[in-house]
């Protein structure tokens, strides 16, 4: 339960910090830290416009998208506090639930019959398919490392072994940061702020959404960022810490993560769309490196030479 | 023979009735006969679950002698899958075949349909290998008749012949295996395998069986019949073939595996790796197909790959002496057999409804059907979500079981870890590509604006045609919401592979499977709640309708929409090393001032078929063509051959060659 509350609090400022960082890096003053929440509240009370081409899919998709993210959040623990649901192999449910939401966003983009949104839908489908192995390999590596297969057990057994786990945590954080950037269609795979539909992924999918639906989708993006932040944060929580230290660490990491994302957005160049698969494959390669790193650490290579 | 078997055979004797009744009630009669057979055999299965395996002996059948039939836990599951699929298929075909075919073609089609049902059931029951081959052959022939139903199209005839020949290669392989077995043990029932495997190397004989059964199931590179036969067959039959018949290949493999004793590691790795490749290859092909039925056929190959991964995992579990992996592997495979039979038949039936109403199977000629055929659209969507393995539907349950088994294998030795790495990447990519393929199929077919006249004028099918589909959806949701019950239900069959009772670690897994169901229900409740809140709020804010945002362009956007080909575009670029898609398009010339309409066509091929099978066949034909020179049609030459033959015979007798041989 604590996870859900903390994530909700963090969504209030995450995008604000990110946008502020980008503004400062770009030499601008930038909007206030809670501007994105104000924007959402404004959208909630606005009239909704539908395209006449669309069907029921377009209306249900945003609700399903945000439910899928909320559902996924229910599987993430906070330090030694268990999540709402936890069972062996829950990370599979986590990933597939998110995929369920994505499925609906993709078809809702195709529902409008717009060439732009079709483009976004197609890119979303391709990149989320390619990024999936990196995440699964990462979790599988940690499952192998800790001998457990639920988020809660993995996080709680990670630092028992020795200091090698901290190396792994840093590498895992790196991959999670990159996965979060790809999953949200941010740089280097897509650029939300170019005002050119041809270079966007997420934003071009939701051109026809408006009002409450758009607010939900935007809030979903915040939730997704913070959710990955929570996954990263758990690597650095120790069961010896007190609750307040843990919460402090959580907010610290969320802020660092928001600033990092802002800096990455400011100083990274967008890849050519054709090169994106290569970039995503490179993330999978790093996951494989972690996998082999754990194999070496567990001295399984030696059994062959003997 | 007891009461139930008698009923079963009376029903079989009743099948020729289909040939003689008036045309308009043929498909109703077909449904009732199949329903009757299904009820009878389901009663048998109920007895098996209550009292354990039952045996029947059919005494002195004319050709094959006494036949031993046995239903155990493994055959029960397949019998249930067959019965369910046949019932929905024959129910759907009542509507589908209404105005199709002449009386003769319809008679033959429906008669062979009933016979196909019976032969599939008998394949699952038969204990004698000779009888098994006979039933297997009847099954292949009946399904061949299913494929040639629309014989006015030459493409269908070619597909059917392709199927006919490949199925006979498969029977030959089966016969080789049986003869080999008979030669070594002197027995011709499944028990012979027990004696053979305990004293001989297991892998070679298993491999022959695998080639035979794998051809039926559609493992690569033996799959090439499937993408031709399924589109050729009418949709109810295609659903039955993809949903139930190809699973009998899996049944064969699973049946042989109950007897295998040694070489488990090799067999496990073999099945595991072949299945990964099958899954990946199947879904890569599915994602680029233009014909919806061909796409579904390739997706069947992908799902056979997932089932095979479960089987391979289970075998590796036995080799590693791990109960958890064995249980998860086989349970995942069997669960996926059940699941795939549900959603694949659903997808074929709904694709059939679209075909009836629009007359086209080309994805790129459809569009906007969600508004015109809403019920069919929702049903197809549920099928797509389920086949992608997304919660809260049933496909997730089986994939979850297989993932859980994989997690167990991570703690084995190094070589297993490497295998696991490959398997994990494959299964995740298969899942991702399935989402790609099915968002494409659903999105292009049912959403956006119509891309052709036919699609624009489509209307919803009759309500009764959707009844079987709704029954299937109920089953899909039942498995999705109460997976624990169904996994317990199949654990009897899984225990055939586990020498001892399931221990605590396996029972602990039941816990997480039941939780999956619970969480799925909560997920659905959450979606509904959020949607209701949203709708109330949106209604209070007022809604307006307008055209799709066109970035300033206000003309018709029908032709601007993404098509199946353009949606697959960047994916095709990615898979270029594996599958090449040829595009035929005459580009604009320098002097073309005004663009005229010009054709664009894309063509993808199956490299295993064109580079593998065709080149072998070509070489074979070339070498055989030398013999054709002898057959030149001149009477004098034939007399000369006869003369030469007699002379040689005479000489051989004179020199007494025969006694020396």
Structure description:
The complex is a heterodimer of chains A (306) and B (661). Chain A has twelve helices and one strand; from the N terminus they run ααβαααααααααα. Chain A is mainly α and 306 residues long. Chain A has one domain. Chain A starts with a helix and ends with a helix. The model of chain A has no long low-confidence stretch (mean pLDDT 87). Chain B has a domain at 607-660. Helix content of chain B is 72%, strand content 4%. Chain B is mainly alpha-helical and 661 residues long. At the A-B interface, β1, α3, α4, α5 and α9 of A face α17, α18, α19, α23 and β3 of B.
> Secondary-structure element sequence of chain A?
HHEHHHHHHHHHH
Radius of gyration of chain B, taken over Cα atoms and rounded to an integer in Å: 27 Å
How would you characterize the largest beta sheet of chain A? none
Categorize the overall geometry of chain B.
globular
User: Class by helix and strand content of chain B?
Assistant: mainly alpha
Give the integer mean of the pLDDT values of chain A. 87
Query: Termini of chain A, distance in Å?
Result: 49 Å
| Beta content of chain A | under 5%
What portion of residues of chain A is helical? over 70%
Give the oligomeric state of the chains in this entry, treating copies of one chain as homo and distinct chains as hetero. heterodimer
Q: Can you give the mean pLDDT of chain B?
A: 87
């Amino acid at each position: 339960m604590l996870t859900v509350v903390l994530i909700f609090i963090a969504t209030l400022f995450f995008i604000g910090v990110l946008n502020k960082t980008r503004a400062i890096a770009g030499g601008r003053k930038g909007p206030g830290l809670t501007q994105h929440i104000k924007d959402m509240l404004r959208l909630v009370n606005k009239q909704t416009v539908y395209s006449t081409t669309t069907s029921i899919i377009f209306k249900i998709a945003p609700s399903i998208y945000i439910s899928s993210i909320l559902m996924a959040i229910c599987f993430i623990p906070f330090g030694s506090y268990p999540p709402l649901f936890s069972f062996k192999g829950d990370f599979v449910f986590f990933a597939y639930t998110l995929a369920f939401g994505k499925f609906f966003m993709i078809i809702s983009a195709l529902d409008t019959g717009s060439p732009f949104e079709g483009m976004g839908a197609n890119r979303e489908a391709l990149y989320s398919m390619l990024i999936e192995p990196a995440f699964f390999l990462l979790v599988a590596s940690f499952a192998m490392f800790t001998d457990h297969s639920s988020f809660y057990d993995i996080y709680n057994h990670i630092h028992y072994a020795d200091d090698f786990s901290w190396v792994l945590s840093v590498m895992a954080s790196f991959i999670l940061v990159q996965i979060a950037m790809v999953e949200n269609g941010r740089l280097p795979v897509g650029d939300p702020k170019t005002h050119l539909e041809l270079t966007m992924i997420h934003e071009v999918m939701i051109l026809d959404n408006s009002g409450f639906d758009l607010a939900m989708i935007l809030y979903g993006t915040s939730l997704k960022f913070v959710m990955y932040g929570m996954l990263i944060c758990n690597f650095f929580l120790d069961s010896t810490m007190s609750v307040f230290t843990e919460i402090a660490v959580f907010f610290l990491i969320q802020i660092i993560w928001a600033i990092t994302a802002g800096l990455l957005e400011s100083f990274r160049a967008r890849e050519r769309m054709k090169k994106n698969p290569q970039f995503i494959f490179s993330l999978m390669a790093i996951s494989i490196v972690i996998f082999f790193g754990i194999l070496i650490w567990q001295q399984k290579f030696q059994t062959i030479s003997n | 023979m007891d009461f139930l078997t008698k009923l079963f055979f009376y029903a079989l004797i009743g099948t020729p009735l289909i040939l003689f009744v008036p045309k308009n009630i043929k498909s109703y009669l077909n449904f009732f006969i199949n329903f009757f057979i299904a009820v009878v055999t389901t009663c048998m299965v109920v007895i098996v679950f209550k009292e354990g395996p039952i045996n029947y002996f059919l005494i002195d059948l004319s050709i094959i002698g006494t036949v031993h039939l046995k239903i155990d836990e493994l055959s029960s599951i397949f019998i249930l899958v067959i019965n369910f699929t046949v019932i929905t298929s024959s129910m759907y075909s009542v509507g589908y075949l209404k105005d199709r075919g002449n009386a003769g073609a319809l008679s033959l089609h429906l008669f062979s349909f009933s016979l196909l049902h019976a032969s599939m059931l008998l394949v699952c029951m038969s204990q004698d290998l000779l009888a098994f081959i006979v039933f297997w052959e009847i099954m292949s022939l009946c399904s061949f008749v299913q494929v040639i139903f629309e014989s006015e199209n030459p493409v269908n005839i070619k597909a059917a012949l392709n199927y006919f020949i490949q199925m006979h290669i498969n029977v030959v392989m089966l016969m080789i295996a049986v003869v080999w077995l008979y030669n070594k043990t002197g027995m011709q029932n499944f028990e012979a395998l027990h004696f053979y495997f305990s004293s001989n190397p297991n892998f070679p004989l298993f491999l022959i069986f695998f080639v035979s059964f794998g051809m039926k199931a559609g493992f690569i590179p033996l799959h090439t019949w499937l993408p031709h036969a399924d589109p050729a067959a009418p949709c109810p039959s295609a659903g039955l073939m993809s949903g139930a018949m190809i699973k009998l290949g899996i049944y064969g493999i699973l049946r042989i595996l109950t007897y295998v004793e040694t070489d488990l590691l090799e067999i496990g790795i073999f099945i595991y790796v072949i299945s990964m490749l099958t899954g990946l290859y199947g879904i890569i092909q599915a994602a680029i197909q233009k014909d919806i039925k061909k796409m579904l056929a390739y997706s069947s190959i992908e799902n056979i790959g997932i089932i095979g991964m479960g089987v391979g995992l289970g075998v590796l579990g036995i080799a590693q002496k791990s109960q958890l992996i064995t249980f998860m592997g086989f349970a995942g495979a069997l669960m996926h057999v059940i699941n795939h039979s549900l959603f694949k038949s659903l997808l074929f039936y709904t694709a059939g409804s679209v075909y009836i109403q629009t007359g086209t199977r080309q994805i790129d000629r459809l569009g906007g059907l969600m508004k015109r055929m809403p019920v069919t659209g929702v049903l197809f969507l549920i099928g797509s979500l389920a086949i992608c393995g997304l919660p809260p539907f049933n496909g997730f349950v089986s994939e979850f079981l297989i993932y859980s088994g994989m997690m167990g294998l991570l703690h084995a030795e190094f070589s297993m870890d490497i295998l696991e790495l490959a398997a994990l990447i494959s299964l995740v990519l298969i899942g991702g590509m399935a989402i790609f393929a099915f968002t494409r199929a659903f999105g292009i077919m049912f959403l956006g604006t119509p891309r052709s006249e036919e699609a624009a004028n489509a209307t919803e099918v009759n309500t009764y045609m959707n009844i079987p589909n709704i029954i299937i959806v109920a089953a899909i949701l039942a498995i999705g919401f109460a997976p624990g019950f169904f996994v317990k239900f199949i654990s009897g069959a899984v225990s055939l592979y586990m020498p001892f009772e399931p221990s605590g670690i396996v029972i602990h897994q039941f816990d997480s499977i039941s939780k999956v169901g619970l969480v799925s229900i909560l997920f659905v409740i959450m979606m509904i709640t959020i949607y209701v809140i949203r709708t109330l709020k949106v209604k209070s804010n007022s809604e307006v309708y307008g055209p799709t945002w066109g970035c300033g362009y206000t003309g018709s956007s029908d032709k601007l929409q993404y098509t199946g080909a353009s949606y697959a575009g960047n994916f095709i670029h990615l898979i270029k090393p594996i599958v090449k898609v040829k595009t035929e398009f005459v580009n604009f010339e320098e002097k073309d001032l005004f663009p005229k309409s010009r054709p664009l066509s894309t063509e993808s091929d199956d490299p295993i078929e064109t580079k593998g099978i065709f080149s072998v066949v070509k070489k074979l034909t070339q070498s055989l063509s030398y013999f054709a020179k002898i057959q030149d049609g001149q009477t004098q030459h034939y007399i000369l051959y006869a003369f030469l033959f007699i002379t040689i015979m005479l000489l051989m007798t004179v020199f007494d060659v025969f006694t020396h041989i």
